[in-house]
Amino acid sequence: MVFFLLLSNQSPSGVFFFFFFFFFFFFFLLFLAGTPLFHGAGVYASSTSLFTINTTGHKDEAGALLNWKSTLDNHSQSLLSSWHGSNPCRFAGVTCKDHGAITHLSLSSLGLRGTLDGLDFSCLTSVVNFELGNNSIYGSIPSSIGNLSKLNFLDLCVNELSGDIPPSIGMLKSLHYLCLYANNFYGSIPKEISDLRNLRRLYLSENGLSGPIPSEIGRLTSLIELDLSYNNLIGSIPRSIENMTSLSYLWLYVNRISGLIPQEMGRLIHLKVLSLKKNDLVGPIPSSLQNLSNLIALNFNSNHLSGSIPQELGNLISLSVLLVFNNSLTGPIPASLGNLLNLTMLNLAANKFNGSLPSGFNRLTCLRELYLSNNEFEGVLPQDVCLGRSLQIFHVFNNRFTGPIPTSLQNCSTLIRLRLEGNQLTGKITEASGMYPHLNYVDLSHNHLNGELSWKWEHCPNLTSLRISDNQISGEIPAILGRMVQLQALDLSFNCLSGEIPREFGSLMLLLELDLSSNTISGNVPTEIGLLSHLAHLNLASNNLSGSIPVPIVSCKSLLSLNLSRNKFWRSIPSEIGNPQFLEVLDLSHNLLTGNIPGGLGQLRMLRVLNISHNSLSGFIPHTFGVMSALTSINLSYNNLEGPLPNVKAFNEAPFEAIQHNKGLCGNVVGLPKCNATGSKKHNQHFGARITVILILSFSGFILLSCTLIVLVIIVHHRRRNIRRENNEQANDLAFMGIWNYDGKVFYDRIVEATEGFNSKYYVGEGAYGIVYKAEISEGQMVAVKQTLSSQDDSEVIDLIAFEREIQALINLRHRNIVKFHGFCSYTQRCFLVYEYMERGSLRTTLNDDERATEFQWDKRVNVVRGVANALSYMHHESSPPVIHRDLTSNNILLDRDYEAHVSDFGTARLLRPDSSNWTTMAGTIGYIAPELAYSMIPTEKCDVYSFGIVALETIMGKHPGDLGLQDCSSSSQTGSPMLLKDVLDQRLSLSRIHLQDAQNLVLIAKLAFACLHSDPQFRPTMGQVSRELCVQVPPEMPLSTVSLEQLRNFNVRKFGAFARDGKF
């Protein structure tokens, strides 16, 4: 009642507000009291509705991710084992907002393999960060990626994505960071990318992108970093780049960009790093670059720039790195460069600069690296170049510098590399001697330095290469050089050195090259040189050396070239001359050698050049020369040789001058008599005498033969009965071959009988640890029998228990791409290993034969590389214990009738005592050895990986790759045009009709091979990774015709190692 009386006194508006607050307060109390009116109906219903919406969103996102997971390979799915259920916020790598929507997908570096086709981006519209870098995602980027409208960060770098970059990527308006580098994208850069106005970092490097840089890119005014390097971009740098005023880092290097460097580049006032190296840019360096006051690094290497260096560049006082190597720049160096006091690296090499260096160079005390080589500079070198005690690399070779070596170098303890060769420097050689704890390379060759070698070189403990050839150095070679145990190359040739070769050189165990030629060194060659087990090149020519050729020297198994010509060596050529199985060049000419040519010389199957002219050799040319198929050049002139020339190409095509002035040679060379005519004449002269002797001996022989046959019948009868009994006990068939007893006389006799006493017609080849023969042990069962090598007293063979243990390990290896090891036989201190016989011989033999190589088509070669990878993967990862091959080469990869690869000769070094000479020498074959073995001497699985890289390239190139990829192979000519993969593949096979899948496989093989050749073992893939890559169906990539070696050479860094962008330049 009171309530209504109060109410009747209010205005209408007051009544309204009164009722409003009254009902609001009433329902609020009911809610607090828990009235069922709310909890049982309305509120519950609303809560249920909200829950349903969130659950539906979860299910859509979870379903999208789970569906994508199911499209990945099995290994990848196992890596995402936490991805199950309906709540994606619990998935590993997934981050959600408070309301439950996915905002971050962080899946980088997990080893995932698959495509993006199965990922429904329309269900992930709340994603802000999408990180999938450093995996093995292949295929194309779906155009539906444009649905990620809130995306700020997209990282798909270091994968195997291919195809075009979709134009729909321009729909990602919120994107700040886009990383697609190190993939296989091709086609042009979509102009729609310019719609990403908020983009700050764009990385598209290391792909196969082509076409010009779109002029629309100038709209990206917020961009700070732009990387388009390592592509095939053409055209000029768009002038619209002047609008990108926020740009701090611009990388356009290793493309085919042409035209001038635009003057507009000078408006990028915030630029810190500008790299345009390895393009086709022409014209002058624009003076407008003086406006780039923040510039720290400028790289114009390997273009076609001309004109002089602008004086205005001296205004860039913040500049730390200035590189203009390999252009056509001319004129003197402007004095203003002396103002760049912060310079740490200056490279002006390989241009046409001339004149003297400005005196301001002495003020560049922060310099760590200075390259002035291959120009036309003259005058004296800056004497204070190392005044700041920072200089590490000083390269001024191939100029016209005169005067002395800079005095500041004597106390330059930071120096690492010093190259002054090819100038006209004068003064004492001792001026280059000092305390250099870090110095590893010195070349002072081709100057006018004089004096004697200093003992101070001993204070260079890390020196690996010392070259002082073609100077006027005199005196004796100091024995102290024998203490420089890190030396790998020593070249003192073309000087005036005298005395004898120091015996202390035998301590240089890492030495690969020794050249003392063209001096006046006398005496005998010390036998200690034979201790240099890694020595590959020995040149002692044109001295006064005398005595006999030391046997230890010609026994160096690593030798590739040996030149002892123009000395006074006498006596015969040692029979051990056939020991260096990889010897390619042998020159013993102009000596006093006598006697016959040893038959062992014919064992040098790799020999290409042989010169034994101007000696007093006599007798016949050994018949073993008939199998020297690699021989291309011979000179046997001015000797006393006679008889027929071997029927091999080198002799048949030799000029008459190479065989003239001998006693009685005959053959098919113009100027020599035919062998058959000479033979007939001698035959007629002695025919009568031979008939008389034959008649007298025939009757006696008939009587003797009759008696012998009677005795043999009796012996054979008894032997057959004994052999049948022994064979039943010892196993008569290969199916029962295992490990024979060490007194295996029965099997030894069968080997001798099957090879006719190891007759040369059963010879198959020779490896580092034995000679291989083919033998038919029983009817229709051919095997390869390796007779292991050892010293005369077999002192290097280990005890029988350890020998048997190793043999058993080899027998347990079973893989389709490993040569089947049947067993071994040991008898009378001889050991034989028995393997499955391969009809087509070694991979090297096939590649070296033009006819067989043309039958060895691309698909077969791909299969061979894949097979070798599978075998090594099995040995490293599946065998227990793991087996390291130690010496993988094309010579011990054997091919069966169907060109299936079979790895052989693995682990044989394990059969020798750890302290034997074979064990302590570097494991492996020159040309296939991993670089770290030069100092570690410990073979690892990554050493096999390196050797595989060489073999893989050799298989697709048709020849040993040499230094391809190990050095800078980005340019095939002076013009700097990129060297393409197709240009180095085996030209004996056609690429015009190659199957698409084979072409893609060749690119993949080359990629993996270059990755395997990384100088740092930790950056090489494992053989398991390589095998998996080769066994997966290869997705479409950039065309074979566009792939450059530079792209392949950089694949190793990004794919299997920690590819760091810090310091990228």
From TrEMBL:
It is found in: Cell membrane; Membrane. Residues 758-1032 form the Protein kinase domain. It catalyses: L-threonyl-[protein] + ATP = O-phospho-L-threonyl-[protein] + ADP + H(+); L-seryl-[protein] + ATP = O-phospho-L-seryl-[protein] + ADP + H(+). The keyword Ribosomal protein does not apply. Its EC number is 2.7.11.1. InterPro entries: Kinase-like_dom_sf, Leu-rich_rpt, Leu-rich_rpt_4, Leu-rich_rpt_typical-subtyp, LRR_dom_sf, LRR_N_plant-typ, LRR_R13L4/SHOC2-like, Plant_RL_S/T_kinase. One of its GO terms (molecular function) is protein serine/threonine kinase activity. ATP binds at residue 786. Keywords: ATP-binding, Cell membrane, Glycoprotein, Kinase, Leucine-rich repeat, Membrane, Nucleotide-binding, Phosphoprotein, Receptor, Repeat, Serine/threonine-protein kinase, Signal, Transferase, Transmembrane, Transmembrane helix. It comes from the Eukaryota. One of its GO terms (cellular component) is plasma membrane. It is a single-pass type I membrane protein. The keyword Transmembrane helix applies. The chain crosses the membrane at residues 691-716. This is non-specific serine/threonine protein kinase. It comes from Eucalyptus globulus.
